[in-house]
Amino acid sequence: AQKITQTQPGMFVQEKEAVTLDCTYDTSDQSYGLFWYKQPSSGEMIFLIYQGSYDEQNATEGRYSLNFQKARKSANLVISASQLGDSAMYFCAMREGLTGNQFYFGTGTSLTVIP
Amino acid sequence: DSGVTQTPKHLITATGQRVTLRCSPRSGDLSVYWYQQSLDQGLQFLIQYYNGEERAKGNILERFSAQQFPDLHSELNLSSLELGDSALYFCASSVGGARLETQYFGPGTRLLVL
């Protein structure tokens, strides 16, 4: 089974609108961390936001927020007030706290912001 | 700019050859991670070093090896290169070795094997 699933290969959003990028994960660990990264066309990976499995509040970082639903094992990224510079690939990732050695990435979602 | 540097930015080589990719972590970070990003495999974790010691191993081939030096920079050695090794290789760093720390990525090295 896939550890991280991103079911939206591509998304479009109008500038200034909000968009939600989906991510579901699979783990039996109680302690784990969820991460979102942005990869523009230039190729670098940019850290956006982190959510720990024990965090009770949803993480927020500026225009980014993480909609964490533990029972559903989902960690969706919400980008508010989209900007043209948000056009990029977005990757959801997970690291398991107790048993895992690996850092698992999803296949990514390509977001295009339309003016 | 994440503060992680990688050299070279681009590398073109032939099958059967050996190359070395270099990474300098952010100032103060003790952990270095290596990743491979290819079109067919996506982003794959290869290996992690913490303060000079191997900490975790992922999907790293036996033809590949890495090390972290006393000054904390790291090198990834790829040998007997095959066409399928063409990929973007990322280095990332984090403060310590804790599993749930955020990793900051370098700009990557694009390797093309002809």
Task: Give the SSE layout.
The complex is a heterodimer of chains A (115) and B (114).
Chain A: E1 4-5, E2 10-14, E3 19-21, E4 24-25, E5 32-39, E6 46-52, E7 60-61, E8 64-69, E9 74-79, E10 88-96, E11 103-105, E12 109-114
Parallel strand pairs in A: 2-12
Antiparallel strand pairs in A: 1-4, 3-9, 5-6, 5-10, 7-8, 8-9, 10-11, 10-12
Chain B: E1 5-7, E2 10-13, E3 19-24, E4 31-38, E5 42-50, E6 53-57, E7 64-68, E8 74-78, E9 87-94, E10 104-105, E11 109-113
Parallel strand pairs in B: 2-11
Antiparallel strand pairs in B: 1-3, 3-8, 4-5, 4-9, 5-6, 7-8, 9-10, 9-11
Mean pLDDT across residues of chain B:
93
- Put simply, the count of helices of chain A is 0
Structural category of chain A is mainly beta
Kindly report the oligomeric state of this protein: heterodimer
Distance between the termini of chain B: 31 Å
Shape category of chain A:
globular
- Please report the total strand number of chain A as a whole number: 12
Helicity level of chain A, as a percent range?
under 10%
Q: Main beta sheet of chain B: strand number and arrangement?
A: 7 strands, mixed
Radius of gyration of chain B: 13 Å
Helix content of chain B: under 10%
SSE order of chain A, as H and E? EEEEEEEEEEEE
Give the end-to-end Cα distance of chain A, rounded to a whole number of Å.
38 Å
Notes on the structure:
The complex is a heterodimer of chains A (115) and B (114). Chain A has 115 residues and is mainly β. Chain A is built from no helices and 12 strands. Chain A has strands at 4-5, 10-14, 19-21, 24-25, 32-39, 46-52, 60-61, 64-69, 74-79, 88-96, 103-105, 109-114. In chain A, the strands form 3 sheets. In chain A, strands 2, 5, 6, 10, 11 and 12 form a 6-stranded mixed beta sheet that branches. A 4-stranded antiparallel beta sheet of chain A has the order 3-9-8-7, with no helix packed on it. A two-stranded antiparallel sheet of chain A has the order 1-4. In chain A, strand 10 and strand 11 (103-105) form a beta hairpin. Chain B has strands spanning 5-7, 10-13, 19-24, 31-38, 42-50, 53-57, 64-68, 74-78, 87-94, 104-105, 109-113. In chain B, strands 2, 4, 5, 6, 9, 10 and 11 form a 7-stranded mixed beta sheet that branches. In chain B, strands 1-3-8-7 form a 4-stranded antiparallel beta sheet, with no helix packed on it. In chain B, a hairpin with a 3-residue loop joins strand 4 and strand 5. The chains are: A mainly beta (115), B mainly beta (114). Chain A binds chain B through residues 31-33, 35, 37, 42-47, 50, 52, 91, 95-98, 100-108, and chain B through 2, 33, 35, 42-45, 48, 56-58, 88, 90, 92, 99-100, 102-108, 110.
